[in-house]
Amino acid sequence: MSRTFVEMEGARLSLSNLEKDLYPSYGFTKARILQYYRRIAPFILPHLKERALTLKRYPEGVDKDFFYEKRCPAHRPVWVPTAAIPQDKGEELTACLVNDLQTLMWVVNLASLELHVPLARASSPDRPDAVVFDLDPGEPADILQCSRVALILRDLLSRVGLASYVKTSGRKGLHVFVPLNRQDATFERTKMFSKTVAETMQKHYPDLVTPNMAKQERIGRVFINWSQNSASKTMIAAYSLRAGEKPLVSVPLGWNELEELSRQGDPDKFSFPPADAVRRAEERGDLFAEVLKKEQTLPHM
Amino acid sequence: MAALQGIWSGTISFSLVAIPVRLVPAIQPGRVTFHLLHAKDNSRLSRRLSCPAEDALIPPDEIVRGYEIFPDKYITMTDEELESLSPERSRTIEIVEFIDIREVDPVYFDHPYYLVPSKGGGKAYQLLVEIMRRTNKAGLARFVLAEREHLVAVTSRSGALALTTLHYPADLLPGEVTSQTRGAPEENEDVNMRNTIVRMTADFDPGKYSDDRRNKLRELLIKKTKEHAVVEAPAPSEEAGPPDLVAALEESMRTMKERS
After folding, report:
1. Mind giving me the DSSP string for A127-149?
2. pLDDT digits over A61-98, tens only?
3. What is the CATH T-level fold of the domain B8-27+86-171, as seen in this structure?
4. Cα(A60)–Cα(B88) distance, integer angstroms
5. Which residues does chain B have within 8 Å of residue A201's beta carbon, measured at their own beta carbons?
6. Domain spans of chain B?
7. Contact flag B257-A192 (C-beta cutoff 8 Å)
8. B49 CA: distance to closest CA in chain A (Å)
9. Which residue in B245, B255, B256 is closest to A196 by CB distance?
10. Which among A155, A187, B173, B185 is least buried, having the fewest CB atoms inside 10 angstroms?
11. Cα A183 from Cα A195, distance rounded (Å)
12. Closest residue in chain A to residue B246, using alpha carbons only
């Protein structure tokens, strides 16, 4: 195994197998993956900070076996921040907190291409900072139907007084976030809210939307996965890479941008490779910044 | 104490013989039992039934029995319907035939009891114990205990009559085999009693017996299924949202559609 040592903010980090091509059919080495995360760090770190990271590791590349790791690996350097997360039956789990650049580089070096975090911070694991609507198109529906659903959802939420933000999933779907950032938020309420919204959408657009997880129901429809609003679930972080055939990023979009993409009708234009994601962020700033800041209250709950 | 008083009293009879007896348990399992307490104050905890759809504790008068025929689809049974299937409580253990106890595969034996003689039954009881011991015979009877009709074997054991409830053949898992050896009746002191036993002796053929109550219950379930008496548990996802939120979303959706 080849190793390279780097010094970063006083921390010494050992990087391995930098030349390994983790996206073999595309040609994207671990060195380039680390480079991407280093450039995007100022934008992704706020969304990872103080949240229990779930690693999704692809040690042999995206076309080989992967594994999830909720536990922060025991061989971690001393400077990796962690948090004890309460589990069922009174047990605790030590999770990594990606609060700084060197920890980000360390987890990416473990071939954790995808970075998944809960909707709540580690210090308040039962308090969601946002409601999420995970929109997942079931074939033959694609991201175009998905964007139509997202735009209807935005209008509906705005009519009940809620601002929302959208990002691509980095695969075929879209994620709509409603920031709350309030002490009194609970998963019980965010789940009930998202489910009720999903059911109203289905009632009015039964051919386009389903709130039902059953495979049969999802064929040709957009599944609004409201059940992601749970303390035990995680979402792919904004700006994380996805382990698809091509390296694509979960990228925040402006609503007007989504309207324009929806009008153009080309599903491929919803894909953002790492270079695009970096350029967009550096030019326009973090379009998801409000998700971490904006305070809102769910109506009629 | 229950063991002395008996959990049932009546007569054991066959042909014209009737002997007053009491049924007593033959075993008392020596289990060490624990209760569940609240660790904070040592209160004894109670178990209560709750409804997931309403998220509320349910009083006994709102509880019915349901037989699941498909996932989340049930046939309900009232207490009255179940009672109508229960056999009449009986005061006799009527031996219908005698078999060679060696023919009975031990896999049939369920729960052991003793029959002890009640007042006035001592002499006939001792005689039956002795004859059954010498002939190695067991009496087969149907007997209602705790609202269930059981198939039982009455045998002679340690100078007393032992009663053992038997499993119905339908309850046995495949693989059981019963031996078909048959012992010849032996000489006996009491000619009448012995002759009666010989006359009533048959091969052990458990296939003749089945649980009547269970058969009737099955028939009733099939009948009710055909009558479409099936009820369904609510799917958790059908639980409605807060009424005000539903109304606000509906109103928003309506005005959105009008404008487009």
Report:
1. -BSEEEEEEEEPTT--HHHHHHH
2. 999 988 999 999 989 999 999 999 988 777 889 999 99
3. Ku70; Chain: A; Domain 2 (2.40.290)
4. 73
5. 253
6. 8-27+86-171, 208-259
7. no
8. 22
9. B245
10. B173
11. 21
12. A196
